[in-house]
UniProtKB/TrEMBL annotation:
PANTHER family: D-AMINO ACID OXIDASE, RE49860P
Residue positions binding FAD: 40-41, 164, 181
MF terms in GO: D-amino-acid oxidase activity; FAD binding
Protein name, as recorded: FAD dependent oxidoreductase domain-containing protein
Domain annotation FAD dependent oxidoreductase: ranges: 2-323
Family: Belongs to the DAMOX/DASOX family.
Amino acid sequence: MKIAVLGGGCVGLTTAVHLQNELRNSAKLDVIAETFDETTSHIAPGIFRIGANYTGPTEEITRKWVSDSYEYYDAINRSPDAAIAGVTNLSGYMYSNNPFEKNPFMEELVPIYRKCTEEELQLVEGGWKYGMFTSTLLTHPTFYLPWVRKRLAANGVNLVTRRVESLKELAKDYDIIINCTGLGAKRLCQDRYMVPISGQIIKAKAPWIKTFFYADLNTYIIPGPDGLITLGGNREYGSYDVSICRHQAAAIRERCEKLVPSLTKAETVIHKNGIRPHREGGIRSGTEKIQDGLHSATVIHNYGHSGYGICTAPGTSKYAVELAKDAHRLA
């Protein structure tokens, strides 16, 4: 059996890891991507933070996606590879002037998820009415993605740099194709539900920031490796524009510095802008048959993660692999 995983970001590579673990030497596995080095996953800060409105096909599947994802990263965090894989513990605060929704995903998984005390509401500027404190996990994509690629290559997985024009063109070479192409699925699958949401961030030097902070208006401050922090952000619905807007950059700095005034001393290192692969109606996860002349293949879809690509890639990938195993048994 020959299997192709399409997509070189966190979802594609993590799917390949699950396939490798499940199938061992019973299948030939290729990971195909137009690029492995400039994906949306490389820009994401990688914090495990699931919104209360996150939804999958069913409530049961959604909860399993989330729990499987946390368990996957937690296992890496507890392993000797934690440092090189870029997975670590991180705690922080979320502030708002609106009440927080009950969030069973976070409450049931992370070690701590509680309301802020009155003293904690005063830790930052802004006079916030509501706050939550949580202890969670952070996955640095600039560490995790190379670590996964190295692990896959060492176990015989081929990483193929190639632009695929149609899923059907792969039918003659592969029995199963797992489609993790993110926004690329808009073209490959003619999926009109795929919508780009661009987001701009700033990487700055602030080694004194050890906790994360979130606040209203897409404001966030997330510490990373080597004293670098991520300052964000914004959401431009329907935008493919990844150019750096100096007005957005100024607005991000202003909001973050107002929240944590010491950031006025943080030196800007780089500006980045990426596109979240949002899908109206949620992640596409399912099976279909394709045929090109005499050749046919089974396609498993696993795309449309929006801003939850790093967070939930392990869970949706594990689910996609189960679909692939079912399809192989039925073939």
